[in-house]
Amino acid sequence: MKTIYKVFLNIIILTSIFLANSNIYAQNNFDKWFKNNGLRIDYYHTGTSKTEQILFKELKFEKHWGGRKKNLIDKFEYGSYLVKVYDAKTKTLIYSYGFCSLFEEWQFTEEAKTLNRGFPESLIIPFPKNNIKVELLS
């Protein structure tokens, strides 16, 4: 019985080491997926206290990327919104982060119960080397 336990424990340890190393590699591979520039995504966040809609405005090239180059995938996903960036060809998640918005705060006002209103917002992500798919989740 002790031998089976040791084999099982070794399998768990080896699997954990493998997964930890592959996760570190994925988290720190900025140069594979991105240039050292930013991509600003401008949009309008509109709606009422019970609805919301995103209206795309434009994309802007930013000369410098001032964000993180490690831990590209947000493990905690804090905030009410989550941006996910996927490589279009491989469908690999290459960048994500969670955030809150001014629109969300406005939704709790009295005005939001009777008025449809919009706020300009922007997302800034690292500039991709390849085609990407961007998801904005709420």
Keywords:
138 residues, Immunoglobulin-like, 6 strands, three-stranded antiparallel β-sheet, globular, alpha+beta, 41% strand, single chain
Beta-strand portion reads: 35-45%
Query: What string gives the helices and strands in order?
Result: HHEEEEHEE
The domain count comes to: 1
Approximate shape: globular
CATH H-level superfamily title: Peptidase M64, N-terminal domain
Note down, in words, how this protein is organized.
This protein has 138 residues and is of the alpha+beta class. It has a single domain (2-137), classed as Immunoglobulin-like (Sandwich), CATH 2.60.40.3250. 25% of the residues lie in helices and 41% in strands. It contains three helices and six strands; from the N terminus they run ααββββαββ. The protein has helices spanning 2-27, 30-33, 102-106; strands at 34-47, 52-62, 81-87, 93-99, 117-128, 132-137. It has a three-stranded antiparallel beta sheet. Strands 4-3-6 form a three-stranded antiparallel beta sheet, with no helix packed on it. The longest helix is centred in the first third of the chain and has 26 residues, at 2-27. The radius of gyration is 20 Å and the shape is globular. Residues 21-26 have low confidence and may be disordered.
